[in-house]
Amino acid sequence: MSQRRACVASGIARSTLRYCHKQSDDSGVIQFMQTYMATNPRHGFGLLYASALHQNHPWGKTVLWRVYCQLHLNLPRRGKKRLPARIPARVKGIALNHIQPGKPTQNAYVERFNRTYRTEVLDCYVFDSLQEVRDITEDWLHRYNHHRPHEALGSVPPVEYRVTKFPNLYF
Questions:
Q1: Around 40, how many Cα atoms within 13 Å sit in the side-chain half-sphere?
Q2: Each residue of 10-46: pLDDT tens digit?
Q3: Phi, psi dihedrals of residue 156, rounded to the nearest 5°
Q4: Distances (CA, A) of 78 to 17, 66, 74, 75, 160
Q5: Which end of the chain has less neighbouring CB within 10 Å, N or C?
Q6: Is the Cβ–Cβ distance between 75 and 44 less than 8 Å?
Q7: Separation between Cα atoms, residue 26 and residue 15, nearest integer Å
Q8: pLDDT band at 79, cuts 50/70/90?
Q9: Helix or strand or coil: residue 74?
Q10: What is the Rg, in whole angstroms, of the alpha carbon atoms belonging to the chain?
Q11: How many Cα atoms sit within 13 Å of 165 on the Cβ side?
């Protein structure tokens, strides 16, 4: 019986019969991911993929996702947190100004930055001194502005966006 007739009789496509799995070398992808995640441990797959695109790496999204899952780099889901008992702020002369009811976007940019700073710096480290907080924050701010792709800017870091869009603007 011919191969064609055998495939028709068994209901198998001939392309399936001839398929040969090609072994791919993922060492470059693994090296990139390990280096990136060592520097940015709280970044998820979206920022990792945007950074790989920005750095012109040749890997596609499916290759990155496959290796990302194989390395078990998925971030754990966040559970509900209990809020600590509030300390009266008047003791230190601090007044709390809350966002007005019904206006959740009143301070959206600052709140978004605060959340990112809290999850990527404050929740990841145990600090021994105020100077250590300042040093780690300075390093994180440099990476945030010079290397981290921002989705609102077309997945480009802010400094690079400023240079390309406003070349004559100096700070």
A1: 21
A2: 988 888 878 777 777 889 999 999 999 998 888 889 9
A3: -125, 140
A4: 45, 23, 12, 9, 32
A5: C
A6: yes
A7: 26
A8: low
A9: coil
A10: 25
A11: 9
Query: Is 48 exposed, middle or buried (CB count within 10 Å of its CB: 0-12, 13-18, 19+)?
Result: buried
Give me the DSSP letters along 78-90. Answer: PPP-PPPPPPPGG
Number of H helices, E strands in the chain: 8, 0
Q: How many CB atoms lie within 10 A of CB 4?
A: 9
State which amino acid sits at residue 79: G
Name the residue type at position 43. H
Identify whether the C-beta of residue 55 lies closer than 8 Å to the C-beta of residue 43.
Answer: no
pLDDT of residue 31: 95
Q: What are the tokens at 86?
A: 């509030």
* Interaxial angle between packed helices 61-70 and 45-54, expressed in degrees from 0 to 180 and rounded to the nearest 10: 130
Q: Which tokens go with 42?
A: 């709280």
Q: Of the ranges 79-93, 102-116, 143-157, which one carries the lowest mean pLDDT score? A: 79-93
Supply the mean pLDDT for the chain. 85
Say how many C-beta atoms besides its own lie within 10 A of residue 115's C-beta.
10
